Amino acid sequence: MSWFEDMNRHLRGVEKGGKPDPVYLLYGSEAALQDHAAGILEAAYRRLKPDCERLLFGAEELDAGDLKNALYASSLFESGKVLKIVEVKSLIPSVRKVLISYLESPDPENLIILAVSKIERRNKFLSQLESLSRTLYCNPPYDNEILPWVLQTVRSGGKDIDTAAAEKLVSLFGTQVDDLRNEIGKLELYTGTLERITVEHVIEHSAFNRNFSTDDLMTALIRRDRPRALDMLNALLVQDEKIQVLLVISIFRVFWLIRSLKGSEGEKVDLQTLARKLGIFGTKSIENIRRNHRNYSMDEIDRILDALVQTDVNIKTSSMDKFSNFLILFEEITGPK
């Protein structure tokens, strides 16, 4: 059995009502696979403990006191806690010592998820973590394992997908897991409250991306390139009404990420971690945000976020035509012509 089959078999068991183990090490280079696995584990844990507390840390931001408090402090209001540490190898020695001590006798009422992207067999600390946790390897799957992963990923998100639709998705967007996870997220938004994703939905979604992708539009907006953004908007709005909501959500995620980068949290947590919190996996989007986020002040971002909320309200309640609605929004984002 391959590592990928082993991981999926365990996750399926958890999804069907199995209790998660108290400690997991998500080990490997695919961020989307790590987040997919973590999402299934957390959802299963929340079914058992709906009032649990959730804590997410980048390893570089943790000191020994913070970790002790996160691991051992109890609350009158929460029944347990989910604690996730991203890139756990970056923990400093004093924090590693606290973590290892806890893992030697973990609290069965908690769920601890440790993530690290680079597998290093000779690293003593990582070897210790492997021995003290259930390890799920998150490396690129073989091509023949991609389709089962797509099916499981969509179904874990609460929708169903036809096998033919999953095959079409892979044929159109390739076998890179991070890219596929990004497209699955967009399809989930695109299909709204519909419970099943069909081949027709995938083809429509592909048409939406054929001339300009949402990544291209986000790049134009964060660069304040209003003429190019409007050209793309004209092309994208020929689609049906669902496209408008997808655009608003995509833009909101990007500017919320930019806002986070400018706040105190952004000083402690790396961009990749922040992006993953918001469900942004596309490498192109993340790198464009890294290069261009200083184009906006905090006051401007807050106004943009308010404008996005108002745009969403207008879509659902106003008789304003869709181009004018977005024109007002884009003027707020890029500045007037």
Any overview of this molecule?
The protein is of the alpha/beta class and 337 residues long. The protein has two domains: 3-137, P-loop containing nucleotide triphosphate hydrolases (Rossmann fold), CATH 3.40.50; 143-334, Zinc Finger, Delta Prime, domain 3, CATH 1.20.272.10. Helix content is 61%, strand content 9%. The chain has 17 helices and seven strands. It has helices at residues 3-15, 31-48, 64-72, 93-103, 124-131, 143-156, 163-173, 177-190, 199-210, 214-222, 226-236, 242-262, 264-268, 271-277, 283-292, 298-317, 322-334, and strands at residues 23-27, 53-58, 81-86, 111-116, 134-137, 160-161, 196-197. The strands form two sheets. The chain has a five-stranded parallel β-sheet with strand order 2-3-4-1-5, with helices on both faces. Helix 3 (64-72) links the parallel strand 2 and strand 3 (81-86). The longest helix is centred in the last third of the chain and has 21 residues, at 242-262. The termini are far apart. The mean pLDDT is 84.
In short:
This protein is α/β, with parallel strands linked by helices and 337 residues long. It has helices at 3-15, 31-48, 64-72, 93-103, 124-131, 143-156, 163-173, 177-190, 199-210, 214-222, 226-236, 242-262, 264-268, 271-277, 283-292, 298-317, 322-334, and strands at residues 23-27, 53-58, 81-86, 111-116, 134-137, 160-161, 196-197. Helix 16 packs antiparallel against helix 17 (322-334).
